[in-house]
Amino acid sequence: MHVDIGNALAEVATPGVSEAALERLDAEVADAHETIAAGMSNAVFGYASLNLPETTSASGIERAVADVDADAVLTVGIGGSALGARTVTAALGEPEHYVLDNVDPEHATRLLDSLDLPRTAVNVVSRSGTTAETLANFLVVREAYEDAGVDWTERTAVTTGETGPLADLADAEDLPTLAVPEGVPGRFSALSAVGLVPAAILGHDAEAVLAGAREARDTLSGSLFDCPAYAYGAVAVALERRGAHTNAFVPYAEALEPFAEWFAQLWAESLGKEGQGQTPARALGATDQHSQLQLYRAGRHDKVVTLLRATERDDRAIPDTDVEGLAYLGDATLGELLDAEFEATEASLAAARQPNVRVEVERVDARGVGDLLFSFEAACVLAGELMGVETFTQPAVEWGKNAARGLLGAGETEEAAAVRGKREYRIE
Amino acid sequence: MHVDIGNALAEVATPGVSEAALERLDAEVADAHETIAAGMSNAVFGYASLNLPETTSASGIERAVADVDADAVLTVGIGGSALGARTVTAALGEPEHYVLDNVDPEHATRLLDSLDLPRTAVNVVSRSGTTAETLANFLVVREAYEDAGVDWTERTAVTTGETGPLADLADAEDLPTLAVPEGVPGRFSALSAVGLVPAAILGHDAEAVLAGAREARDTLSGSLFDCPAYAYGAVAVALERRGAHTNAFVPYAEALEPFAEWFAQLWAESLGKEGQGQTPARALGATDQHSQLQLYRAGRHDKVVTLLRATERDDRAIPDTDVEGLAYLGDATLGELLDAEFEATEASLAAARQPNVRVEVERVDARGVGDLLFSFEAACVLAGELMGVETFTQPAVEWGKNAARGLLGAGETEEAAAVRGKREYRIE
User: Fold this and answer.
1) Across B282-288, average pLDDT
2) Spans of all domains in chain B
3) Residues of B annotated as catalytic (active site), given as ranges
4) Do the domains at B2-38+212-387 and B50-204 have one common CATH topology?
5) Which of A142, A332, B212, B316 has its CA at a distance of 20 to 30 angstroms from the CA of residue B149?
6) Are B273 and A299 an interchain contact pair (Cβ–Cβ within 8 Å)?
7) Active site located where (chains A, B) (predicted)?
8) How close A233 gets to chain B, by Cα (Å)?
9) B88: distance to nearest CA of chain A, Å?
10) Interval A272-291 mean pLDDT
11) What mean pLDDT, rounded, does chain A reach?
């Protein structure tokens, strides 16, 4: 991964970072890197995530699911138990990975009705084995297989912690079982079985994903000037300190749309703490130039726009046309059009002094997505250090979980009582 | 559509709006409504959009495409020429509407390879008939049909302005042609042929969409206290004035995910002007509780969270389980779980004094999506009046268009030269 921070400099953008400020920031990066490197060495909770490219065994995952014979995979998980896996298969161009990561009954019914169940493997993922949405969906999926006369036990793989209801179930039914790695929060687990099982079941090269991640890991160093991942994380924090409270994340590749969703969780849940944290706003290039660009150029100067693209791709020529006014497209390819729009958008933001950062990978493929996943995790860990937040926890979501449990009759909770006391002000 | 603004009140949230401030705001709403009503009466550019539920003829659209015999539709358009149509078919639960609204060559190839072209209609949409992305894609699509030996002229419908290359083409090939309505910007055109053709080709009830929109139009009045759409728009502006610079838009229904994208264009492109405008951050409930909620609760108080749900749906029981710790789910349905999470999230935001607004429709169906589309358009027009911006233009996107044209060889432009002068600062 390469990063170009030219359009985040104070000479170009407002807010922007001066070169002198970057030098000062680099001293902070050096300190943060020491903490991170020590955390990796000692496999400290959270920091251990950055060891996954080394500690995950692709062949081990492939062996575990070798007997799962399927043309499609249905992942049942939510948050970090789904986004990483979907990111990987999307980048691989794999269309037969479906995800049930919501508890919307109409959607569940439509999805299950559309699948060829005898040819579809089920991939259930929950560290605790008790995640309400995941277990509820799994019960629904199991029933759908049974109703269709299809034996789910022959085509289900489980990724979970060492103990818990899912581990017990996998044991009782003799299901292939993969471990959620120790010391790794869900949103940092894409480079483990949590993110790689669907790709492995569908015959993709999981090892290549890890190899791409290892290349990124080898760039980690004590200076933002030598490490693209740290450069991204450091500049994002520097801009946030100067008022860029939103990170508009815009991949110019449809196959990276799930990566933008994965980034949104990583960034929001890791850094959204103590009144800090950039709000990730997901978009897609070039499509959303026709949707968000007006605001990004002419709105407040409270955003950094992250523009992400691949520098190589399978291109496709635009056929010649005799349509007047379009002749200029005639010699171009779709890829050249996409690149022209990328660079035009980048420059148009700079012309409005709106800060933006260019991120490039060679290709959207197994290696490329491994590189991106690791690099943005490292960027996020660095950002957390610079911001002084607890990167690896998510304490603010517990309140809602307690409330939902209470509402569903698991016993009255203080939080459920607060839900019932809502201040209503309805406009009919 | 109903709106509950209780959690946007100053007694609950920071920022928040006091009841006294709401009363003062209502005087501004009354003035704005006069402008809007006059604009509608005189079919003034932009305001004319709010007449579409009356002026669009569903039967006219249905007649125009009656001879297009297809099981699937491929829409070729971008921005407002695609998002509305996709929003409508998604809300109708129609899986056979595909959209080519990007110029990503790998995606175009994958999509075209996956379609059964003899059974797929093509729906090309561009007001000017010269939109670069749309015409480039249409040329690619045409070639794919020809390569497959399928006559595209028998299954293509065109929606465009009165003149232009697409109108000429439709004339030459005798294609069904629908008019982009006069005085209606793309992002406000969902309730016209621009948004309804794919649904009509696939046999859905376009008239029911318009009927839902008419119900919403009948609520327009001079007071936010009597009109849910105006209540939403007014409270959003009041919160923006008090620092809520992001609008996190969270439907709790997978079938409304495209609606959130449509909203993001509407809000960003209409209101993102002169250093103003909320940044739309799209999310999806309940899924993104496991992604964004940590930030929304514990981050800056610079957001309003819009929580949208249907109050009726086709539900699905969660099968009984003997799994310990999940017994509390046993008597519930997926819908009850979803509602519990909706209300828990809403209350958890309020407990953190983060402002949020509840929006409800009866069902996600033709009537419901018509209601939502019209209501949010009206909310946006009102917001634009209160903010004093030019709601119906998007001047900031021209710079990038000129740059891209220059880069592709349509003749050197000042903007293209600026692209070539980029300030580089690469971290390798």
Assistant:
1) 96
2) 2-38+212-387, 50-204, 396-428
3) 269, 290, 401
4) yes
5) A332
6) yes
7) 269, 290, 401
8) 12
9) 16
10) 97
11) 97
Residue B388: helix, strand or coil by DSSP? coil
Instruction: Name every residue whose Cβ is closer than 8 Å to that of residue B328 and which is 6 or more positions away in sequence.
Output: A405, A408, A409, A410
Contact B299, A299 (CB under 8 A): no
pLDDT at B105 over 80: yes
CATH code reported for the domain at B2-38+212-387: 3.40.50.10490
Query: Can the peptide bond before residue B38 be classed as cis, meaning omega within 30 degrees of 0?
Result: no
Q: Which residue of B has its CA nearest to A352?
A: B396
Q: Both tokens of residue B83? A: 């998002």
Is pLDDT above 80 for B228?
yes
Given this model, what pLDDT does residue A321 score? Answer: 84
Q: Report the topology of domain B50-204.
A: Rossmann fold (3.40.50)
- Residue B206, CB-side half-sphere exposure with 13 Å CA sphere: 29
Inter-chain contact A276–B142, Cβ cutoff 8 Å?
A: no
- Which pLDDT belongs to residue B268? 98
Say if the Cβ atoms of B428 and A2 lie within 8 Å.
Answer: yes
User: In Å, how far are A180, A398, B160, B406 from B128, measured between CA atoms?
Assistant: 53, 51, 7, 19
Which residues, in sequence order, are CB contacts of A278 under 8 Å at separation 6+? A236, A240, A244, A245, A246, A247, A267, A271, A304
Structure tokens at B100: 């080519």
- In total, chain B counts a number of residues equal to 428
- Residue A133 CA to residue B345 CA, distance in Å, equals 14
How many contacts, defined by CB atoms under 8 Å, are there between A and B? 478
Among B290, B334, B352, whose Cβ lies nearest the Cβ of A108? B334
Residues of A with active-site annotation: 269, 290, 401
ipTM of the assembly?
Answer: 0.97
Residue B406 is predicted with a pLDDT of 94
pLDDT digits (tens, 9 = 90+) for A24-48: 999 999 999 999 999 999 999 999 9
pLDDT (0 to 100) of residue A91 = 98
